Amino acid sequence: MRAIVYAENGPSSVMKLIDRPVSKPGPGEVLVRLVRAGVNPTDWKLRAGLSGTLSTPEATPGQDGAGVVEEIGDGVSTHIVGQPVWLFMAQHGQAWGTAAEYVTVPARKAVELPAGASFDLGASLGVPAMTAHRALTSGAVERVAPGSFSGLTILVHGGAGAVGNAAIQLAVWAGATVITTISSAEKAALAKAAGAHHVVNYREVGLGRLGNAIREIAPEGVDQIVEVAPAVNNDVDRAVIANRGTIAIYANNGGDELTMPLRATFSLNLRYQFIQLYGVEETQIRAAADDVTAAVAAGALRVGSEAGVPLHHYRLEETAAAHDAVEAGAVGKVLIDLE
């Protein structure tokens, strides 16, 4: 099979295309023939050595993908050969990820792709959708399902990003009123396409007035915040969060340090939840996989420009360019075509 590998951490040029044997699935594993692979920031950061150094002779990048079950290992009763699946965290805990024609993964990481869902959508789930799910369930609501967020107002910063877009789509499906902040008219259109009820351009409003603009939309405050840039937004977040609300932080865009006035924050009784998907409890990962799949089956999670997620396709031999596009901040979803 064809696969992308790298034998040292570094820029995208360390990756090369090789032929290597197809692995046999071990006990509890399935072999998946990949149709699409998704590319996330975590992929290029791991390859570059920003999220740990390479500990195996070589590795294949890629946490997310979608394809068809090709072979089943001993003890697996949850899958059948020919079953379409979407994959999450494929490279976590092993050297081989989804930038290859085949990959073996623990069966729990290969989730049935609902009928009618495209492989483009399946490969776009994984890290973004499951991170969004955890951000939304860090407060009072433990599951994302129709009606579970009824009466709540959710603020999503960076609504045109992959996690932000998934958070908007999931929260709207669950009945929330969604406000999102963006930086341009183009990104405002994408956030609206995702289903956001209110879009605020923070560059037009200015950070000094952003809190007021959000409070005009939600006078009682917002119940939950999905935060991508806490170092920049924390003062705004504290100004708009409702008492006993939750600020769920999944990235450090805009700065690596967060400071706040403690005494002034006490009265808010708020919760900060920091999220790194690879350390989330297994029960929460399982809940995310189940809820994301249900949202796909219901047509609530979508991709494509009409859903606010422009798709960018690359061939397997163009994986370096795909990584570079994500590192450069490509708007939408970068995918690798494997057939």
From TrEMBL:
One of its GO terms (cellular component) is cytosol. Keywords: NADP, Oxidoreductase. It is an enzyme of class 1 (oxidoreductase). Coiled coil: none annotated. InterPro entries: ADH-like_C, ADH-like_N, ER, GroES-like_sf, NAD(P)-bd_dom_sf, Zinc-ADH_QOR/CCCR. It comes from the Bacteria. It holds the Pfam family ADH_N. Residues 10-336 form the Enoyl reductase (ER) domain. Its EC number is 1.6.5.5. One of its GO terms (molecular function) is mRNA 3'-UTR binding. This is NADPH2:quinone reductase. The lineage of its organism: Bacteria, Bacillati, Actinomycetota, Actinomycetes, Propionibacteriales.
